[in-house]
Amino acid sequence: MKKIGLTTTVPIEVLLAAGYEPIDLNNVFITSEDYSKYIDIAEKDGFPKSMCAWIKGIYGACIDNDIKKIVGVMEGDCSNTKALIEVFKLRGINIYPFSFPHSHKKEDIEIEIKKFINLFNVSYEEVEKVRLRLNKIREFSKEIDRLTYIDNKVSGFENHLYQVSLSDFNGNVDEFEGELKRVISDIKKREPKSMKLRLGFIGVPPMTSDIYDYVEKFDARIVYNEVQREFAFPRASKALNIYEQYYDYTYPYDIEFRIAELKRQISERKLDGIIHYTQAFCYRAAEDIILKAKLDIPILNIEGDKLNKLDARTKLRLEAFLDMLLDLKE
């Protein structure tokens, strides 16, 4: 299959219908044993120190892995993506644009997806056939999520990993389906392990993935990964078509739509507190002001940059936050 890079989650159903192998460059970047080399590639090519590490990582992953085609999200994701796309064009990379319209109107979303379908010269019927196939696999992700917050058999990191991977199905739909089936079978054999504190993790997926194991040292577990769960489209089975499915996707639209889903999950999962992760130099950091005003739950905002491990200061802040939550609970 032909490879095509993604800057974030897009209607992958269209790409698969067109015979492409989608590759989420975020996942390539952050799972690399030498992830910093991708940042170095970007900075050597002129990207400023003061730009988000994710943008630089995406660029480096694309260049280093010789990706020649990219789907760039021009609206509804990172404000720096437009500049990134211009640099990709300079490097001779073919760009296929897609937008999540700010209006968040169903008719506008339908227009954008139809443009995307026409761009790849596939039919609506072909796309819907792929969507139904993928949604069967997304049900396995929902099962892992239930085994996390209901059965207490899944770690916060596993919950993160198997949901965020659905942005590109690890590049192979059939293999990933088999992996999820094996994982679920193994998880169901585990004994439940409850923690005193139930946490939510909201904001972009973290550079510092060791945060999941770290909080578990303090009798706490992250049982809700907001954006990762959205990447897995947990409500897709209720959508009548691809237009409804991407209308109901909270990540790229206005914050009030996102907050409504957050409130539902805080209640359903009986969360004690929330960790709000933001990335250095990202405009989304300002959303912390709104979230703290609108959500009636303790929230700790932590910021990541280039490191893929928690620094000492952030560990101290996490420990203090968890101590406070334990005091409130007891």
Explain what you see.
It comes from Clostridium tepidiprofundi DSM 19306. Belongs to the FldB/FldC dehydratase alpha/beta subunit family. Keywords: Iron, Iron-sulfur, Metal-binding. The chain has 330 residues and is an alpha/beta fold. Helix content is 51%, strand content 15%. It is built from 15 helices and 8 strands. It has helices at residues 12-17, 25-31, 36-44, 53-64, 81-90, 106-119, 124-149, 156-164, 173-188, 211-216, 226-231, 242-247, 255-268, 287-294, 312-329; strands spanning 2-6, 20-24, 69-75, 94-99, 197-203, 220-225, 273-279, 299-304. The strands form 2 sheets. It has a 4-stranded parallel beta sheet with strand order 2-1-3-4. α2 crosses α4 (53-64). The longest helix is centred in the middle third of the chain and has 26 residues, at 124-149.
| Largest β-sheet summary | 4 strands, parallel
Q: What letter string, H or E per element, gives the SSE order?
A: EHEHHHEHEHHHHEHEHHHEHEH
* Adjacency order of strands in the biggest sheet: 2-1-3-4
By DSSP (H or I, 4+ residues per run), the number of helices equals 15
Structural class based on helices, strands and sheet pairing: alpha/beta
CATH class of the domain at 2-124: Alpha Beta
Number of strands: 8
First-last Cα distance: 55 Å
* Low-pLDDT sequence parts: none
> What's the architecture of the domain at 2-124, going by CATH?
3-Layer(aba) Sandwich
Helix content: 40-55%
Query: What is the gyration radius calculated from CA atoms?
Result: 19 Å
Please state the oligomeric state of the protein chains shown. single chain
User: Mean of residue pLDDT?
Assistant: 92
Task: Estimate what percentage of residues fall within beta strands.
Answer: 5-15%
CATH topology of the domain at 2-124: Rossmann fold
Shape: globular
Keywords: Iron, Iron-sulfur, Metal-binding
GO molecular function: hydro-lyase activity; iron-sulfur cluster binding
Cofactor: [4Fe-4S] cluster
Family: Belongs to the FldB/FldC dehydratase alpha/beta subunit family.
